[in-house]
Amino acid sequence: MPACPSCERTVAMFEIQPQNPELFRQQTRRSTLFIALIFLSLAMLLSSAAVLLFGTPGGDNFKLNVAGVLAGLVLSMVLMRVRFWSQPWMAAAVYGWQLKRSLMSVTNVMHHVTAGVEAQDPTAMKLLRFYHLGLTQMHQLDANSSALSQAVHEIDRHKERMEVLGMDTEQNRLNPDWIEAVKRIPVKK
Which whole number is the average pLDDT over 22-35? Predict the structure, then answer.
């Protein structure tokens, strides 16, 4: 148990939503371009201001330029999270980020998931099914058909195992309790 239980990161409930891959990519490109322009503008403005206020004319102002760029990066990240994160034009990028974060939370305990699936633990089997459905969508949204084609056999095989056991294969929601439950499954060494 960690020394600070409240410091441990929790995984929020996430649900896979149908997405149009072409529209998703178009929207994420647009929001990424906007955020990049904000960053570049802030970085140039803050670098110039730092050199103007604290620099030496004709001197080496490299550190001030770097500080201005870093300040621009931090300010851009704060603006994105505080001001832009909830905007409708950011919805696709936010969804993609949440999908990848949810998949990473499963990847982090995959050795427990694998051990649980081998033991036919229902929670581990549902968690792996969610992971497969999320991974499939991520590859479709990213237009990465080659990576998806490599995983299809494993995905189909796991789905068939769940069907044989009479389990629901529509696991579109990531329940944070599944992660905690799967962490308790012993891993073979």
Answer: 96
